[in-house]
Design brief:
13 helices; four-stranded parallel sheet; alpha/beta; six-stranded parallel sheet; 337 residues; ALG1-like; single chain; Rossmann fold; globular
Length: 337
Amino acid sequence: MAPLKVLWQTWGLFAALAYRTAPAKFTLVQNPPSIPTLLVAHLACLLRNTSLCIDWHNFGHSILALKLGPRHPLVQISEKYEYAVSRSAPVNFTVTDAMARILREQYGRQNVVPLYDRPPTHFQPCRSEEARKSGFDALSKRLGWPDENGPTRVLVSSTSWTADEDFSILLDALAGYSVVAASRNLPTILAVITGKGPQKDYYLSRIAAMESEKKLEHVRIRTAWLSMQDYASLLSYADLGVSLHMSSSGVDLPMKVVDMFGAGLPVVGWSQFEAWPELVKEGVNGKGFGSSTELKELLLDLFTRREELAKLKEGALKECEKRWDDEWDEKAGKIFV
């Protein structure tokens, strides 16, 4: 049944692009997904004399390599497929300068325009401390979370619970923070984890085991699947965001950090990939880490030195002034005129 489903979806995509969609001068396709999207879009553009434009958010073969390994024949075929089909695109957008460089140097593409992701307008900062507290209390009550007693810092991480995000890094860091907090009377961390994915049940069972072993005495973990509006509100109420995105290609960026900046939320994140500095300015709007120990030290530092967290907050608020409409109009809008 699976092959038939793929064929049916391929035909549905082709019919939508080649027949049901009104003729246009350009067709803009996001990559990934690469297979069969790029080939179907390429054929539809040939049929309708339309220019194919590719919006590169990552490389499909690098994501496939997470599951199969970089030397697997299917991964190598996928890479050649992306290279061959994308040759027909006269315009290529990328989410980073590093990705644009790879397209130019390794793929031989010339017309490559870095087009950074920027937050949509529904992500907005909450600038009043009192409004942040009352807003979070109201959201917690609506979601059925128990009240927290004593000093609390709200940490938010959005995850897809997949292999390209090692959630154990955050759990180990929180456990390490809890040990130190017990001896130094530090604030309790309320860690709110949003998202769905294949590894969620595994990590929920691990969290339950750590709680029963009293490894998270000064940490409270809440998981939630929120509406877009509630998620945007949560980011504006929180004290710190955490990104565990490791980048399969090394040259893509986590959209979740863009959303956090849109809400004026400073970020700490896994920084061991090339494109990270294009989004997060170290010590200005966030900080990077390369291990659970480094993340633990960042949490201890930022939740005990309020002036340092306030400095990052100021940088995140400046970052939230950059919006998608401005980025599009400046770089892409003139191409499609």
